[in-house]
Amino acid sequence: MLALALAGCPRPASPPGEDGQPSAEAGGESGGKGSAEGSRASDNGPDSSDPFAGLEPLRPHPWAGWPVENVDIEGYDGWRISPVTGGFERDRGLVFNTDPGAFVLAIADAQVVEIGRNDQDQLELTLDHGQGIESHLGPLSDALVHAGLPVTRGAVVGLAAGRSLRLRVSVDGLDIDPLLALRQPLHRWPALLRVLPTPPPE
């Protein structure tokens, strides 16, 4: 009877330790729960055994982006053999496959310099990115900006006129390979390193 009566009584609290805190026996259950939660929290944090943990914010990011949303490159900058004449010719800029009316994007923060016509009487947009760097986009069916307007990277600046869009990048008036400015990784990049030699003088 005495055992049954004691079984229904609350268990007396353990006496406090020397520092005034409850003894480990009293807080064993809650302490075990807290330690389990702490171990789960540490699992979600960065792994201290990974020597590269925390380096992601320090990775260099490209300052420029693609001028179209769906990247499908048709032609690359460099010398090629003309399918018409059979001789060497310089193909300037990157040529992207696009749909008519597709959005054309600014590759980086810039200011609109000019909206005019190129040698083929096609609408072309020129953006000044500072430090002598300019990008030229065309042909366009319509320009959605005006000269002197500042634009940010990825902003829609025009609409593609047809099935292709050409991006040219120049530094101090000299055309360069746009891939050098974009610094974008391509899975076909090793093949791009094989360029045709400079054509012989006539």
CATH superfamily of the domain at 73-184: Glucose Permease (Domain IIA)
Tally the beta strands.
12
Regions with little confidence, pLDDT below 50 for 5+ residues: 1-7, 24-42, 186-197
CATH names the topology of the domain at 73-184 as Glucose Permease (Domain IIA)
Terminal CA distance reads 118 Å
Largest sheet: 10 strands, antiparallel
User: What's the overall geometry?
Assistant: globular
Write up what this structure looks like.
This protein has 202 residues and is α+β, with helices and mostly antiparallel strands. The chain has a domain at 73-184: Glucose Permease (Domain IIA) (Distorted Sandwich). The protein contains 4 helices and 12 strands, in the order ααββββββββββββαα. It has helices at residues 2-7, 28-44, 178-182, 189-192, and strands at 73-75, 78-81, 88-91, 94-97, 103-105, 110-117, 123-130, 133-143, 150-151, 156-160, 164-171, 174-176. The strands form 2 sheets. Strands 1, 4, 5, 6, 7, 8, 9, 10, 11 and 12 form a 10-stranded antiparallel β-sheet that branches. Strands 2-3 form a two-stranded antiparallel sheet. The protein is globular, with a radius of gyration of 33 Å. Residues 1-7, 24-42 and 186-197 have low confidence and may be disordered.
